[in-house]
């Protein structure tokens, strides 16, 4: 286990923090998730995110509980929390307080807008963060505006993944220096950083980022195309060799001059041709054709179809995880592959239940 021996005390809620600590648990860290007494899962994802973790159910308004948790912090490497700025301080569990107890503690705070700044106390959700970060300003179409996305981009790609990167970087730093630190993870900051490919167009070249005007947001033939049966194909044939394969696969070598052109008007003309051509066959027919060529064209699958797709079967990306009631639940596996690492998923429950006495050393409820 890559992170065996690393101990995490997790106070986070909802999605970003629990997803981050699930990744750490998958990689072998010992994660204890602090929950409210008799807290019932609200969504199926609540139980899903608790795999490989231990739970303690406590009342954070109880001074005895706070005292026990402070003593517990001495044994842990990392604290993760996702409250609004100031909440953990009011509970007596803020970074400055815990640093006195454990100078080497790595304390990770995940919030919508960060620990500082004019919006630090404001509530928000993924849709708000990606909007303020400018992502939705050039996503979608001219006619319909911003497009809603099916995943939580700022929450996970922003909050969860950046938290894991920051935590592991802090672990390396502490190994060298013995020093802990406070990580301030703003999901909006992290979402802003995801503009990496398009931001230079404005920041360096002064070009406004507009919908359907850039290479990857609808301004060229790169995009999605409806098929005869109302399904869709994704076409990402950007490089010349892939453009050539695309034209060959659809039997339209005469479109090569348009495909090889980097002029905007030619790219749009090609897009219009492709829209008409792809409606001539079903998704299954096109998938069969493009399976034989390397053109960066793939079907848009339903999520249900991914469960049976040979790629994810071969990569063992779905696993059965045991639940506390004796049944199992299909889950997406840890995506990190290594020749020396194999995740161990629960075989006796998604979580080992509550362990207040075992972990806190007293029967505090």
Provide a short characterization of the protein structure.
The protein is an alpha/beta fold and 365 residues long.
Supply the key terms.
365 residues, 16 helices
Describe the structure in your own words:
The chain has 365 residues and is α/β, with parallel strands linked by helices. It is built from 16 helices and twelve strands. The strands form three sheets. Strands 6-5-4-1-2-3-12 form a seven-stranded parallel β-sheet. Strand 7 (223-226) and strand 8 (232-235) form a beta hairpin. Helix 1 (16-26) crosses helix 7 (153-177) and helix 7 (153-177) packs across helix 8 (187-193). It is elongated and about 75 Å long. The protein starts with 6 loop residues before the first strand and ends in a 5-residue tail after the last helix. 32% of the residues are buried.
Largest sheet: 7 strands, parallel
Radius of gyration of CA atoms, rounded to a whole number: 24 Å
Stretches with pLDDT under 50, minimum 5 residues: 348-352
Bulk shape: elongated
- Which range does the strand content fall in? 15-25%
Strand and helix order: EHEHEHEHHEHHEHHEEHHHHEHHEEEH
Proportion of residues in helical segments:
25-40%
Number of strands: 12
Rounded mean pLDDT score: 92
Spatial order of strands in the largest sheet: 6-5-4-1-2-3-12
Task: Walk me through the topology.
Blueprint: E1 7-10, H1 16-26, E2 30-35, H2 44-48, E3 53-57, H3 63-73, E4 78-81, H4 87-91, H5 95-101, E5 106-111, H6 126-132, H7 153-177, E6 181-186, H8 187-193, H9 199-203, E7 223-226, E8 232-235, H10 240-249, H11 256-260, H12 264-278, H13 283-290, E9 297-299, H14 303-308, H15 310-314, E10 318-322, E11 328-332, E12 351-354, H16 356-360
Parallel strand pairs: 1-2, 1-4, 2-3, 3-12, 4-5, 5-6
Antiparallel strand pairs: 7-8, 8-9, 10-11
Helix pairs in contact: 1-7, 6-8, 7-8
């Amino acid at each position: 286990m890559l992170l065996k021996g690393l101990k995490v005390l997790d106070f986070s809620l909802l999605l970003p923090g629990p997803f981050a600590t699930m990744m750490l648990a998958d990689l072998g860290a010992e994660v204890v998730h602090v929950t409210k007494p008799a807290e019932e899962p609200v969504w199926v994802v609540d139980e899903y995110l608790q795999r490989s973790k231990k739970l303690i159910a406590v009342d954070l308004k109880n001074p005895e509980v706070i005292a026990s948790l402070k003593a517990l912090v001495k044994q842990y490497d990392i604290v993760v929390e996702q409250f609004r700025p100031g909440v953990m301080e009011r509970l007596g569990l803020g970074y400055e307080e815990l640093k006195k107890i454990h100078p080497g503690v790595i304390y990770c705070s995940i919030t919508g807008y960060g620990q500082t700044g004019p919006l630090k106390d404001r509530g928000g959700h993924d849709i708000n963060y990606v909007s303020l970060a400018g992502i939705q300003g050039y996503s979608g179409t001219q006619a319909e505006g911003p497009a809603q996305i099916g995943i939580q981009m700022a929450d996970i790609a922003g909050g969860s993944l950046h938290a894991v990167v920051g935590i592991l970087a802090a672990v390396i730093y502490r190994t060298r220096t013995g020093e802990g630190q406070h990580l301030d993870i703003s999901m909006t900051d992290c979402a802003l950083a995801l503009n990496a490919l398009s931001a230079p167009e404005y920041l360096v070249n002064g070009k406004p980022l507009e919908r359907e005007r850039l290479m990857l947001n609808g301004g060229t033939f790169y995009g999605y195309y409806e098929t005869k049966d109302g399904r869709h194909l994704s076409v990402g044939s950007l490089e010349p060799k892939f453009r050539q394969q695309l034209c060959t696969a659809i039997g339209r070598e005469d479109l090569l001059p348009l495909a090889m052109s980097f002029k905007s008007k030619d790219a749009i003309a090609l897009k219009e041709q492709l829209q008409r051509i792809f409606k001539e066959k079903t998704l299954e027919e096109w998938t069969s054709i493009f399976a034989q060529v390397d053109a960066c064209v793939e079907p848009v699958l339903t999520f249900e179809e991914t469960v049976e797709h040979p790629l994810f079967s071969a990569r063992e990306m779905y696993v059965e995880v045991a639940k506390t009631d004796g049944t199992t639940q299909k889950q997406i596996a840890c995506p990190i592959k290594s020749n020396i690492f194999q995740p161990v998923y629960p075989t006796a429950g998604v979580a080992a239940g509550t362990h207040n006495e075992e972990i806190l050393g007293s029967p505090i409820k």
